Amino acid sequence: MTIREPLLGLSRSELAGLMQSSGEPAYRAQQVAEAIYRQRVESVEEISTLPQQLRARLAEEGVVVGLPRMEKRFVSVDGTVRYLMEFGDGQSVETVWMPEGDGGEASESESGESENRSAMRGWGRATICISSQVGCAVDCQFCLTALLGVKRNLTAGEIVGQVCAVLNDQRVSPQHDRINLVFMGMGEPFLNYDNFIKAVRLLVQEVGLAESRMTVSTAGIVPRISDFGKEEIRPRLAISLNASNDDQRTRLMPLNRKYNLDLLMAAAREFPLRNRERVTFEYVLLHGVNDLPENAREVVELLRGIKARVNLIALNPGPGIDFEMPSDENVAAFQTILREEGILTFVRRPRGRDIYAACGQLKRTVEIATAPAG
Ligand code: SAH
Questions:
Q1: How far does CA 59 lie from the centroid of its chain?
Q2: Atom of ligand 1 nearest to the CA of 132
Q3: What span, in angstroms and rounded, lies between the C-alpha atoms of 189 and 203?
Q4: How far apart are the C-alpha atoms of 280 and 368, rounded to whole Å?
Q5: Cα–Cα distances in angstroms (integers) from residue 259 to residues 79, 218, 222, 264, in the given order
Q6: Is 359 an active-site residue?
Q7: In 3-state terms, what secondary structure has residue 133?
Q8: Which of 11, 206, 251, 315 has the greatest CB tally within 10 Å of its CB?
Q9: What's the pLDDT tens digit per position in 132-160?
Q10: pLDDT tens per residue, range 247-305
Q11: Which listed residue (34, 60, 94, 206) is catalytic?
């Protein structure tokens, strides 16, 4: 039996090619796409629109859907769920489910269809945070994922598969529920650009998620920011700023040596925004390091002329991280300085800290006080 590429991750035309090579008509691609991306079946045997014989033959040929295996599931007191997802080669990443979103992303109010469902289950919208790489190569000094180093890129199918697996587990669908997606889990999406953007297209065109409900966060891979701006189908852009001057940013994010603040802010300034869109800047506040009024004033200068929105994130601590959480007073003062300058600024509520699910805490921790649920 030859090892075949999993179905998840294949585009319509790739599916058509696969069907044709098995001597099947091209319209079978439509049936397969519906089954794997909309219905989200787990095996080819479950693709009920295909003739039984064909299903058996595909299975025999070693064709698999390729959903990741849910190895572990941790549930936080705040409702956040952290999933440890394993792929065929034994590598794993984390994916996070946050009912009610993370308090930091777009939250246009809507009415209608989903109101009743929301009232029944207790959340009106939810955010899925997905990973783009196994580990990360960027080496930000405050992030636990950095401690893993980078093991490999995820394929487009593995990126889409995380979303499908969570939708299935939570029994929700983008057609009936308000689902936001953030590419803010493990890894740097712009260092796995081609697979990331292919996954985006599949998520929009096949799974049915709205572009306007997706946000990708980059540590600042400047040439990819320009490429990204040219994409016809793209999520919103978030940039991890995290420091207010080059010296400090280079210390916190060594990547700044390659793409400094001049280059980064120029890319942000030139980024072609859509109607009512803004570039989000994330800023992790580290006690006594970058959380002082002078830092806030430097940030104001950096953002001049940019249609920006700032998400302040209080450090989520972790073993091996040599920084401390900022005081509530410093967070509030920082936010006030930005707001007084007319900059839209929010403080991101930490989600799932107790289960190591919050920003910068994804390192496949399995030894925690809370027992894994399910
Ligand atoms: N590599 C991408 C995607 C990861 S997003 C990026 O860097 O943008 C993760 C977000 O969490 C980033 O904005 C990052 O700055 C932030 N973050 C990392 N470590 C953190 C920590 N310990 N506490 C709070 N936020 C953290």
A1: 31
A2: 3
A3: 15
A4: 32
A5: 37, 12, 6, 6
A6: yes
A7: strand
A8: 315
A9: 999 999 999 999 999 999 999 999 999 99
A10: 999 999 999 999 999 999 999 999 999 999 999 999 999 999 999 999 999 999 999 99
A11: 94
